[in-house]
Amino acid sequence: MLNADSPAGVTIFMFSSMLVMMATGFPIAFCLASVAIITAWVFQPALANMLLFQFKEFSLESGKTLIAIPLFIFMGFVLHNSGIAKDLFDAVYLWSGRLKGGLGMGTVLICAVMAAMIGVSSAATLSMGIIAVPAMLARNYDKRMATGIVQAGGALGFLIPPSIMMIMYAFVAQESVGRLFAAGLMPGLMLATMYIIYIGIRAHLDPTLAPPIPEDQRGDLKEKLAALKFLILPFLIIFSVLFCIFTGITSPTEAAALGASSALVSAVIRGKFTRQGFKDSLLRTLSLSGFNAYIIIGAVTFSAVYSGLGASAIIRDTVTGLDVNPWVVIIIMQLSFFLLGMFLDDIAILFLCMPIYVPIIKALGFDPVWFAVLYVVNMQMAYITPPYGLNLFYMKAVAPKEITLSDIYRSIVPFLGIQALALVLLLVFPIIALWLPGLIFDYYQLILNPDLLMSKLGAVLDYPDLYKVFIDNPAMLFDAGNMASILSNTEVANQLLATPDFSGFLLNNADFAQMLKSDDWLVSIPPMDSFLLGNPQFLAAHPEIGALLQ
User: For residue 36, what is the DSSP state?
Assistant: First the structure.
């Protein structure tokens, strides 16, 4: 039996064995599970006998998150098979076609919308490859510009919610699906905007690359408005699903069920959903969900053995104990994502790396939600990176015959550069990813639930806009019991009273003075007493309060 106390030995054995099996052509799920079982028998036979118990992770309670995956996939394929992609393109064709590069910019918008409807990259790439690429080529778009737009836009499904990849990450890292969805939205829209800006600049510098559509095809206002009516229900479904998740009205799984059933009703109402479309939606959902399930089982087995042998914990302790800048560790992880993404499936990378990386990230003090966005952007890049990026082959499968694989490879280079720039921006400015989840799940949740705020005063101390929550909730603030709770937490009280906007709000509010007069015992509680003594003008205006401090 080999030495199980050597994390390096376990790591080298497992990963090299997996690569050898992959090189022989075995499916990735089979490689992961087989290597895990063999490693357990070689290093610690007792662990192999206990391997079944490692699947406690798949108990009904902890596996609820994964149930959302087939539901979101089904919702997406129902909307797709009801002709939504064609309706979207028709609307964009009329509204943006008159601009230089307008059709290309509109295609990016369609891909972003389809990402919010489907959640997987392949569907948007294939749909727009069939619909948009021939339409752009027929209007004299450069073939590399046309194919590059669709490939890059199709990959937005990784980031824009409801993202299947984000659900997977939430399961592995035990993070909130809602926070991850919110974290991916702003970077996804930022990336789509960067694509649009690039297309617009290139089209203005060289109008032959992406000319506007002819005058006689632009349509009048009546036609443009008519093109939008078919989009109302699908947009309403997506908005409702995300609203339910972000506000906590339902769990992500319940929201997915709501979305799937609503999509089915919407498709029937639109009158463009056939029996064959329904059958195709079911079969494609079953196929994709089954594929994901096999990889999840193999990857969980792999990570269970790796962690069970102690290698994961030892590597975490080793990395966090190194005398290096934590950002060096982050950069190395990004490079590993990019390199692995050129050869492995994104789900396999997730289950292989995150059980090791997430504990390290947390130990180094980084936000795991921000790290999730970095991972997903890397997977986007991997999907469009030659020679093995999957979106490249999806495009080749549906592109007109005159477009070669070389054209497809060359078309994606500028968009890869844009994605690399977006990754750098997210590394340098984490707030791009963290602002929206902070706003939704910290600020607004606290406003909507004052009891939650009062119970978490210490936990929200570092929230930069904590004082705004109180200002926006004066009834809560001027409750004597709540004020006493705030004053009893010295750190929170000092932070609030030292904030000019907050202190000014108190001193200029008649309800504050009335509360101190009615519940005069608050006046003598530190740091309220020193705060009042430091504001003689307030005491002069309310001498009865000043008398209490004598």
Answer: H
- Kindly indicate the confidence band of residue 60, based on its pLDDT and cuts at 50, 70 and 90: very low
List the one residue out of 24, 55, 35 whose CA is nearest residue 297.
Answer: 55
DSSP code at position 249 = S
- Decide if 298 contacts 18 (C-beta within 8 A): no
pLDDT of residue 533 exceeding 80, the answer is yes
Dig out the tokens for 278 from the structure: 């329904």
Which tokens hold the place of 197?
């800006």
DSSP assigned state of 131: H
Closest CA to 354 of 320, 295, 296, 303: 303
Return the number of other C-beta atoms located less than 10 Å from residue 118's C-beta.
28
Residue 415, pLDDT > 90, answer: yes
Helices and strands of the chain, counted as H and E runs:
33, 0
Encode 327-342: b = buried (16+ Cβ within 10 Å), e = exposed.
eebbeebbeebbebbe
Q: What's the rounded mean pLDDT across residues 4-21?
A: 75
Query: 523 near 517, Cβ under 8 Å?
Result: no
Q: Give me the pLDDT at residue 243, please.
A: 85
- Rounded to 10°, the helix 413-428/368-383 angle is 170
CA distances in angstroms from 155 to 89, 111, 128, 381, 537, listed in the order given = 18, 8, 12, 8, 61
How many angstroms separate the CA atoms of 432 and 430, rounded?
5
d(CA 237, CA 117) in angstroms, rounded, equals 9
pLDDT tens digits for 436-464? 888 777 766 665 565 666 666 655 555 65
What's the CA gap between 108 and 111, in Å, rounded? 5
88 vs 494, more confident? 494
Whether 216 has a pLDDT exceeding 80, the answer reads no
pLDDT digits 0-9 by tens, 332-369: 999 888 888 777 778 778 877 887 888 889 888 899 99
Q: At what angle do helices 102-118 and 232-247 cross, to 10 degrees?
A: 50
Cα R_g (the chain), whole angstroms? 28
Mean pLDDT of 21-26: 78
Q: Respond yes or no on whether the N-terminal peptide bond of residue 386 is cis (omega within 30° of 0).
A: no
In DSSP notation, 276-291 reads HHHHHHHHHHHHHHHH
CA dihedral 4, 8, 10, 11 (to 10 degrees): 160
12 class by beta-carbon count within 10 Å (0-12 exposed, 13-18 middle, 19+ buried)? exposed
Phi, psi angle pair for 419, to nearest 5°: -65, -40
